[in-house]
Write a structure and sequence with these properties.
The structure is a single chain. It is elongated and about 75 Å long. It is an alpha+beta fold and 162 residues long. Helices cover 42% and strands 9% of the residues. The chain has a domain at 54-130. A 4-stranded antiparallel sheet has the order 1-2-3-4.
Length: 162
Amino acid sequence: MSIVEYFNSVTKEARKLLITTLIEYIRCLIQQLFYERQNIWLVSTSTHSKYAKEIISLECEKARRYRVNPINCYRFHVKDGGLDGIVSLNTLECSCRQFQCLEILCSHAIAAAREQNINSFTLCSRFYSVKSFVLAYAESISPLGHVIEWKKPPEYANVKIL
């Protein structure tokens, strides 16, 4: 289910409400989601997201069968029995382009990192780290308060909305 489908399904009944009530409903919904997600990530004992761990696990399995030939201390020719791969650990690139696109190690990069005794997770983008997820949901979404308490610019104070 995409985010649009999810949003439409949870706001289906609320869309019949007055606009201010609908906005408050959506605010409460987002506030609850942020609260729940932040708590999930705060208690996580992992360093990286489940998504990143699953991809790296699958790629590790593939990388077990590969042969690694060093080109220099940063670049490696990884033989996978097919297209092979040229990996650069200092620029975080692989000729298969998966490493650059996902910013998670491909099987070639995992084989090269293993050759250099480098933990695969240290080469992943920081956006897959639990710390990034905690920071993403750190912002509070506070209630607006009652409409009477809202500060209104003087030019809008006496405008009648039909």
